Amino acid sequence: MGNMMFYQKIKYLANIITVSRIIAALAIIQTEPLSFPFYALFLFCGITDILDGRIARKTGSESRTGAILDSIADMVFALICFAKLFSVMDLPLFLWIWIGGIAAGRGINLIFGFMHHHKLVMLHTKANKLTGLLLFLFPLFIGFFSISYIAFLICAIATFAAIQEGYFIRTGRTE
Predict the structure, then answer these.
(1) Share of the chain above pLDDT 70, in %
(2) 119 — phi, psi (to 5°)?
């Protein structure tokens, strides 16, 4: 009986951690870019992103809802961090256009996935995970490497990830 109560209590732990990442990401809005509070919340979001999936798998509480919630949390975190870091990023115009093209491609993938599969399709491919890792590490590299070179590398991998995801969605490989 005791073990059953324990597992019932932790059934939603992964989703609670994911929601805490959304809340922390929203709190980043109130921080100065590259300040201690920014990095503290940023690292908290990164750690919880790793933990929620592992906890879900370990407790057997993986769900479609959890996967969608995780993707939403990732998107909120990425958009807020991008908005905060925008002021400290001095990128050439072609990189801004490239970033916009990647975002448009990802949006097209979402729309196409929903239209053809009647569900929100956000794939956790290895290329998408690598892109996410590099995007997460990006603010930690500012000041050590040329932002343009780092952005170019991330854009190249993100382009491949978006094209691959589009291919998988169009060929029905959405699970």
Answers:
(1) 94
(2) -160, 160
